[in-house]
Specification:
Helices cover 15% and strands 41% of the residues.
Length: 110
């Protein structure tokens, strides 16, 4: 299942080069909108996280996430594997979490 990527990280008014969202990206979008827990692998290590921003940087799908037990993480969506969605993600104390890194230049519509 694929869907058209809204905006797709291109300059305003340009749709040239826009592709289709990957299956993992669509899963992450569902998790982001539903504030769901995500489990998966990244660089062959197990990860448990909540999607905080989703979008594109230089036309690559990117995800800013809160990885439980580790803090802010920036994921290249293409490098995430074995992604499954769980129940509602635990709350995050954003005041104590500190400033997140900037890793998503064009944010998808939540």
């Amino acid at each position: 299942v694929v869907a058209l990527v809204p905006g797709c990280g291109r300059p305003a008014g340009s749709r040239e080069g826009c592709g289709m969202a990957s299956e993992v990206y669509l899963q992450l979008r569902t998790a982001w909108r539903g504030r769901l827990l995500v489990n998966g692998t990244y660089h062959d290590k197990a990860r448990e996280f909540r999607v905080m921003k989703l979008g594109w940087t230089e036309e690559r799908e990117r995800c800013l996430a809160w990885q439980y037990g580790h803090g802010w993480r920036c994921f290249e969506v293409a490098e995430l594997g074995e992604v499954t969605l769980g129940g509602e993600a635990p709350d995050i104390d954003l005041e104590r979490a500190g400033k997140p890194p900037v890793c998503v230049q064009v944010v998808d519509e939540e």
